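Quiz preparation item.
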């Protein structure tokens, strides 16, 4: 099963962007917190770069997001 452009993958990318915006962070600020270029954030948020589970938890921890809440977004809204 290809998941990069699946509805669940798109949903988690949108959720990550929404969480960043709720925190008032720009992509550049998020990149600084992650110690990654802002393009990493941008590619993740538009679905060009997929995070594995360990990266997802790390990403959420660095930016102060609730990783469980993000996973529930895709678990509870399966297509």
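Solution:
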């Amino acid at each position: 099963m290809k998941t990069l452009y699946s509805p669940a993958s798109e949903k988690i990318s949108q959720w990550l962007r929404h969480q960043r915006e709720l925190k008032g962070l720009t992509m550049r600020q998020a990149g600084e917190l992650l110690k990654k270029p802002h393009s990493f954030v941008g590619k993740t948020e538009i679905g060009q770069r997929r995070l594995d589970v360990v990266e997802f938890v790390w990403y959420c921890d660095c930016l102060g997001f609730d990783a469980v809440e993000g996973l529930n977004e895709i678990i509870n809204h399966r297509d």
